[in-house]
Design a protein that fits this description.
Elements lengths: L7 H11 L4 E8 L8 E5 H19 L6 E5 L4 H12 L3 E4 L24 E4 L2 H6 L3 E3 L18 E2 H4 L18 E5 L2 E4 L13 E4 L4 H13 L3 E7 L3 H10 L7
Parallel strand pairs: 1-11, 3-4, 3-5, 4-8, 5-6, 6-7, 10-11
Antiparallel strand pairs: 1-2, 8-9
Helix pairs in contact: 2-3
Length: 255
């Protein structure tokens, strides 16, 4: 049985109210990078805390709100999820650049071509992209980072240093209208009414190894709407390691 879609912000509030401590996203990092070996798990309450801080930063420091476009130039990652929900919380449209939606998308620095015309804010892990944007947030993917590893371009927000200074609660001024743009990726545009936030089926523990950022966002909305949770494997884990991981995590849908 399905129900009418709700806004991402309302969905997150429902998850926090229903079971604030239950894991909603677990991420294993198998990439050939400094973050290899990380395992990060976020409950609904912790996810909501990250979302609130990012939403306050977007609205208070970067003037993002209804009608704004936030270019999310990040790989599938737990940080990507809270930035997407933050953009939706302020009523903005999330845009995912083409190289983050292709089957062979990588996790390395993006080229300047990733910054398509028109975004009001760019959230990226690539210094070159941040430097070219009118308003940008430079994200450091490492879980324990307290500042960017290298030099941050003038005028760019260093997320690792500055996000913690923002409030743990976000009070949205209004819910976005259903016809407002919410997600643009691979030439397709979804409105807030189109987002897959209507509950279908029962809760599952779903695994994904996708390299497609937009797919991760849609999957998270779908799984969480049904009161489920996600396990994300980044990179290419050894098959035996992956099999053991899925069993230990109680995955019901291996993806």
């Amino acid at each position: 049985m399905s129900t009418a879609p709700e806004s991402p912000a309302a969905l997150l509030r429902r998850l926090v109210s229903a079971d604030p401590g239950r894991p909603r996203i677990t991420v294993y990092d198998d990439t050939d990078s400094p973050t290899r070996g990380e395992r990060i798990e976020l409950s609904a309450r912790v996810l909501a805390n990250w979302v609130a801080k990012a939403a306050n930063l977007l609205r208070d420091d970067l003037d993002a709100g209804p009608g704004s476009v936030v270019l999310l130039d990040l790989p599938p990652h737990w940080r990507t999820l809270y930035w997407a929900f933050a953009a939706w919380s302020v009523g903005a449209c999330v845009e995912v650049p083409a190289h983050r939606t292709s089957a062979d998308a990588g996790d390395g620095p993006a080229s300047s071509a990733a910054t398509t015309a028109g975004p009001d804010v760019v959230v990226t892990d690539a210094v070159v992209v941040a430097a070219a944007a009118p308003e940008a947030v430079l994200v450091t993917l490492a879980a324990l980072a307290r500042s960017a590893a290298g030099a941050v371009p003038a005028g760019v927000v260093d997320e690792a240093r500055e996000l913690a200074t923002h409030g743990d609660v976000f009070d949205g001024w209004s819910e976005p209208g259903g016809s407002e743009p919410a997600l643009r990726a691979a030439g397709a545009l979804l409105t807030y009414a189109d987002l897959p936030t209507g509950s279908t089926g029962g809760p599952q523990r779903v695994h994904t190894g996708t390299t497609d950022t937009a797919l991760l966002l849609r999957l998270a909305l779908t799984v969480w709407a049904a009161d489920g949770s996600l396990v994300l494997s980044r990179g290419e884990p050894d098959p035996a390691v992956l099999a053991a991981r899925l069993q230990s995590e109680g995955v019901t849908d291996p993806g």
